[in-house]
Amino acid sequence: MLLWQYLITFLLVTVQICKAEKCDEFTDLNLGHSIIGTSLKVRLLLYTRSHGTCGTLVSHTDLSAYPQFNLLNPTTFIIHGYRLTGSPPPWLGDLTQLLLVRKDMNVIVVDWNYGAANLNYLEAVKNTREVASNVTAFIQMLQEQGADLSSIHLIGVSLGAHISGFTGANLKGEIGRISALDPAGPEFKGRNPEDRLDSSDAQFVDVVHTDMDLLGFREPLGHIDYYANGGADQPGCPKTIFSGQSYFKCDHQRSVYLFLDSINATCTSRTYPCSSYKDFLDGKCLTCSQFGDAGCPIFGYDVIKWKDILLEQNQTKAYFKTNGKSPYCMTNYRMDVMIWNKDVQWGYLTVKLHGNGKEAQATINHKSLKFKKFTETELLAAFDKDIQSVEKVSVKFSTGNVLQPKRKLRILQIRLENLEPKENKAQGSLCRYDVLLEENKEVTFRPIPCEESNF
Ligand SMILES: [Ca+2]
Ligand SMILES: [Ca+2]
């Protein structure tokens, strides 16, 4: 063979390989498109374990063209929301990858960027029904080919949560699960269940609220509704408008990053059913006897293990605190403090746990705490890390009042109990008796197991 023949063969093979590895990408638009306004185009991109980073545009008619689509596997749809700037969602790749790592499944990214990118939010809202019709038709095709509706999971972000709701309603609520990540509030507040997401749209609907005071939805919409950090504002997000665009979307987008952490499962966020965030912070909802040995439901992807008991309870509002950045999960303790000062004392507590060369901190300052002689003050102490084996504890008391003389808290008993169910924790309750806390001075001590004390 001559050299040029080799070259041509080489080129042909290269072209073949390139053709085989051609990946379809999520539509990348810019602010210009958004300013002019875009009209709706729905594209469904398939990802599987064998094609984890290379998307394939799929049609609604011929599934056999995509041998990597396995009808016996569950299928998860990712449905994004409004795109102000037209850029692809920054979390999309991570969400797809983490899902595929967790389970062998088909992931379909519903790309409706043409239609979502528009300065006028109302135009994007108008497209939601049509996106849902498109996804519905695809799912009906899957069903005709033999897929089981209960193995279908829709993960909808913001407007995508209501698109998931419409899709689920089109399929008579028979799809397995909808996970709604901060469902959009504007244009959906106060609407009837058929005009928004609700718990009848799937067999199981889990919802997380992270920005209910601005872009999200305040009222519960699913079988379980989580209110992360109360559901309105998130730690680590800018508090002023001077931070630009992130001021508007940080709280809202946090719902996705919390969910990503839960799929990643590096640690778990335990959540507490309660009537209000205030009661939760006050330590009034820290027992979960209604959930038996499983304990309080955890947040996110794996809450499906609580499905049956949550369905029995019809609607659950659950609260949890998170860190300001990933890993978001915190370790919760119940803390009891009893003092013997003559007068009632008011103030805040900072508690640190030390062990294995690590330190975890909980700041209990959501309100001025009331300490009364010989009366247990029960508190929630949420620590930023999990210290499996606590060697030492530090406590600091402050009143925040610099004008008055420094106070002293005469502690008769301090008790810390890890709230994780028994099989998940290394230690039982930790106690310490007779501690004098001078205001703003940290005191460190070695706790002892409570049951071994003679108190
Ligand atoms: Ca609905
Ligand atoms: Ca907010």
Structural description of this entry:
With 455 residues, the chain is α/β, with parallel strands linked by helices. It has 2 domains: 20-320, Rossmann fold (3-Layer(aba) Sandwich), CATH 3.40.50.1820; 331-452, PLAT/LH2 domain (Lipoxygenase-1), CATH 2.60.60.20. The protein is 23% helix and 28% strand. The chain contains 10 helices and 19 strands. A hairpin with a 2-residue loop joins strand 1 (43-48) and strand 2 (51-58). Helix 6 (128-144) crosses helix 7 (159-170). The termini are far apart. Residues 10-19 have low confidence and may be disordered. One calcium ion binds next to helix 7. It holds the Pfam family Lipase. It is found in: Cell membrane; Secreted. Residues 1-20 form the signal peptide. The active site is at 158 (nucleophile), 182 (charge relay system), 252 (charge relay system).
Q: What's the level 1 CATH class of the largest domain?
A: Alpha Beta
Inertia-based shape: elongated
Mean pLDDT: 93
Approximately how much helix is present in the residues?
10-25%
The CATH superfamily label of the largest domain reads: Alpha/Beta hydrolase fold, catalytic domain
Q: What is the total number of structural domains?
A: 2
Q: Name the helix and strand elements from N-terminus to C-terminus, one letter apiece.
A: HHEEEHEHHHEHEEEHEHHEEEEEEEEEE
Percent in strands: 25-35%
Which value, in Å, is the CA radius of gyration? 26 Å
Straight-line distance between termini: 94 Å
CATH topology of the largest domain: Rossmann fold
Poorly predicted sequence stretches spanning 5 or more consecutive residues: 10-19
| Structural class computed from helices and strand pairing | alpha/beta
Family: Belongs to the AB hydrolase superfamily. Lipase family.
Active site: 158, 182, 252
Protein name: Lipase domain-containing protein
Binding site for Ca(2+): 196, 198, 201
